[in-house]
């Protein structure tokens, strides 16, 4: 196992599994420029790894992430915030969404605002039952700035996006599961993450990569086109095709 413990965002790798850990618990892991920059660096390292197949995003302390550290930009003009802070977060979160590996947010604690937006840029969200989730920006006179609304639209549709963004409510893990923005609730987030990671690592790397690319395109024709153009050639070249007899045996 390797462990980069510098700064406020750690990267721990153990074979095919990498963990990106927010480590600012005394500030409820609120994201400032330094943390976003470190997160960007960790994502770049993971993206270049041929060994890592699954990336878990987690946090120290009792809260996953309270959102943006508003103290950093207090007093700044709105144009400055939009021009620097918003674009930085969008770029870094976009890098998370674009990772070739499958990503899992381990929500052992609550996630609000930018913290929930961070989790929404992962492929899966696993939550402990006692947590709260929300996009409270509208109650503070602003709007989610790191593509949170568009991520909810893509993941769970307009009804969920309206409920989260327009009300600013805090939702329980169970309500978030019903809305479609949480995939798994487990007694502990770690136990749910471990089961999901085991399942993901049971698949083959190239198949998983192709499917992730296909699922990033929401229209059915785009998905079918990607699968038709990539899957056969890539899987055959890698020797990862499953014999028909094996499939029939496992489903008989």
TrEMBL record:
Reaction equation(s) it catalyzes: a (3S)-3-hydroxyacyl-CoA = a (2E)-enoyl-CoA + H2O; a 4-saturated-(3S)-3-hydroxyacyl-CoA = a (3E)-enoyl-CoA + H2O
Pfam families linked to this entry: ECH_1
CDD domains given in the database record: crotonase-like
Superkingdom per UniProt: Bacteria
Coiled-coil ranges (or none): none
Keywords: Fatty acid metabolism, Lipid metabolism
InterPro entries reported for this sequence: ClpP/crotonase-like_dom_sf, Enoyl-CoA_hyd/isom_CS, Enoyl-CoA_hydra/iso
Family: Belongs to the enoyl-CoA hydratase/isomerase family.
Protein's job: Could possibly oxidize fatty acids using specific components.
The protein, known as: Enoyl-CoA hydratase/isomerase family protein
Organism: Mycolicibacterium komossense
């Amino acid at each position: 196992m390797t462990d980069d413990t510098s700064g406020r965002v750690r990267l721990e790798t153990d074979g095919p599994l990498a963990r990106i850990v927010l480590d600012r618990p005394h500030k409820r892991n609120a994201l400032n420029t330094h943390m976003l920059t470190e997160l960007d660096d960790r994502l770049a390292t993971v993206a270049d790894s041929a060994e890592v197949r699954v990336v878990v995003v987690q946090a120290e302390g009792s809260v996953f992430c309270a959102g943006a550290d508003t103290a950093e930009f207090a007093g700044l003009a709105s144009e400055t915030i939009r021009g620097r802070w918003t674009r930085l977060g969008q770029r870094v979160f976009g890098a998370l969404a674009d990772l070739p590996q499958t990503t899992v947010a381990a929500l052992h604690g609550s996630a609000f605002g930018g913290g929930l937006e961070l989790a929404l840029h992962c492929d899966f969200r696993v939550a402990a039952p006692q947590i709260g989730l929300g996009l409270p920006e509208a109650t503070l006179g602003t709007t989610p700035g790191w593509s949170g609304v568009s991520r909810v639209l893509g993941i769970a549709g307009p009804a969920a996006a309206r409920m989260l963004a327009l009300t600013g409510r805090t939702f329980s893990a169970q309500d978030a599961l019903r809305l479609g923005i949480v995939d798994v609730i487990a007694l502990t987030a770690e136990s749910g993450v471990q089961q999901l990671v085991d399942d993901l690592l049971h698949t083959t790397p190239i198949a998983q990569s192709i499917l992730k690319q296909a699922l990033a395109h929401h229209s059915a024709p785009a998905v079918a086109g990607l699968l038709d153009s990539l899957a056969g050639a890539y899987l055959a070249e890698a020797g990862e095709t499953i014999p028909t007899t094996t499939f029939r045996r496992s489903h008989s």
